TrEMBL record:
Keyword Transmembrane helix: no
InterPro entries: Beta-gal/glucu_dom_sf, Galactose-bd-like_sf, GH, Glyco_hydro_2, Glyco_hydro_2_AS, Glyco_hydro_2_cat, Glyco_hydro_2_N, Ig-like_fold
Protein name: Beta-glucuronidase
Protein family: Belongs to the glycosyl hydrolase 2 family.
Keyword annotations: Glycosidase, Hydrolase, Signal
Taxonomic path: Bacteria, Pseudomonadati, Bacteroidota, Bacteroidia, Marinilabiliales
GO BP annotations, alphabetical order: carbohydrate metabolic process; glucuronoside catabolic process
First-level EC class: hydrolase
Enzyme nomenclature, EC number: 3.2.1.31
Native species: Prolixibacter denitrificans
Domain Glycoside hydrolase family 2 catalytic per the UniProt entry, residue ranges: 305-604
Glycosyl hydrolases family 2 sugar binding domain: residues covered: 100-208
Entry annotated with the keyword Hydrolase: yes
Domain of life: Bacteria
Amino acid sequence: MKKLTLLLCLIWVGQVHAQTVITNIPGRNTFTLNGKWHYIIDPYETGYYDYRYKPYDANPHPYGGFFLDQHQTNKTQLIEYNFDKSPTLWVPGDWNSQDEKLLYYEGSIWYRKLFDYKKSNPNDRVFIHFGAVNYESDVYLNGKKLGKHIGGFTPFNYEITDLLKKDGKNSLVLKVDNKRHKEGVPTLNTDWWNYGGITRDVDVVEVPQTFISDYYIQLKKGSQKDVAGYVKLNGPNAANQTVQVSIPELKINKTFTTDENGKAAVDFQLKKAELWSPKHPKLYKVTVSNAGQSVSEPIGFRSIETKGTDILLNGKSMFLRGICIHEEMPMRGGRAYTESDARTLLNWAKELGCNYVRLAHYPHAENMIRLADKMGILVWEENPVYWTIDWSNPGTYKNAEHQLTDLITRDKNRASVIIWSMANETPVSDARTNFLRKLTQHARSMDSTRLISAALEVHGNNNRYDRIVEDPFAQYVDIINFNEYVGWYDGLPEKCDSINWIIKYNKPVMVSEFGGGALQGLHGDSLTRWSEEYQESIYKHTLPMLMKIPQFRGVTPWILCDFRSPKRVLPVTQDGWNRKGLIGQNGTKKKAFFVLQKFYKKMEEKDK
Ligand code: GCB
């Protein structure tokens, strides 16, 4: 009985939500938990609910709850699971592309990792940090619940200082559930694969008692020399402390003092700094320090704003030569997650002549954004508010706001990121516009320097060839972006030649999507659906059509690579893949790739 009480005490029934995210993980003292993790497929959530469907972590039971990671210690003991004897999955990585029987799986899978950890300093604090887990996760360390996290594409962490075993193995267990929900963000219906699992890096992060948890060091809106931002300390000695910000290459070394909440306002001038741009992606090593600790990372400085119908980067008008990208590797057919995956995708974008990418339709891995910083590629980042979100559900709004907060928190120091996108192709209604307006206000309150946009929709009228962009949400954005599919869902490619665009906003206009499907290697004439020639024809007719829009300032055709989608069921042609990529599932370029490449060469010449 005593043993039972002890065991029950070990189970912490309260629920802690993920704590404020620690930023700049690559710049910290970390220990990776990437590698092989044992897993148990649990479609009925037997490891979570008892037979009365009550969660074990709220109603502890000595043998229930896979998070206890128990082992049979005598021959009479009844335990109906065993992580040690279960197969393994690679983390990070989606489960769908690692085990054939999981390709279409949507449900719960338990993951378990055993690890030893010795602190480098006995007084330090220790956190466990997840780059992303899709979609919902319940996290337990040594049988205790750390919390629950919702949202498949943003980082979260939990403090584990007091739970770590001094000697012996720690057992880290996650229940990961990728079931879709009507009220979720995204919701039930999307045109991409619902890859489940621990899809990004897992790290143990060791920090001092009071540590630099976050900082924001960027040029002020509209300025090319004034830096503004903050440094935040977390811990018992966070208030009234001095913190330093230094940029040795610019001989800058400034001191600021934290307020009673541990936050210091940062304000200084850059003299003779080289501004970041796609042509010169200059990054400076910026170091933030306090009481003997320091955190560093490369940061670029640039200004981004709109003026009338122009987009100004460092004060100069530019055209954004872009492409949409899903976070997926064509040849492997799973989530992209390594830096080398990111490099493959961004190198293709560069080869196409891009200076800009739209990372659709959710936050991509941090290594993608950091690489874009280094390679000089501008970035659109997007919240997964897609199609028919449950607009009037306050919980759905909170969820969307939370995901956006975590995205901005993670990437606010990346010079490459110039646009926060609130949503994609959302149907106009008061509830929806209100939802997006609130999200926009929230984004601006966190980061006043970047531009706000969303991929809007196009409407027709009685005239067959009029196409109108008119949306009550347009008043809140800095750049009008819309998706159009003339030539694919809307007539044949030649229809583009007759379209009359009606866009009555005195703002820059960009086209966030256009395109059509082609099976790589399938040839026919330009009217044969799915042939490379049909897709090529769409590009040949669309680009001149868009050039007629006076405020046209950029475009991100749909899409760099073919990607998996369960909605695309046409045998032989689709087989579960959306074929609108300029590059096929096997990594081979289709004819349309070269049409866009030629157009971008011309646009680049013009920009010089
Ligand atoms: C769209 C969506 C995108 C789809 C694409 C398509 O408008 O924004 O997510 O994949 O159309 O292929 O139909």
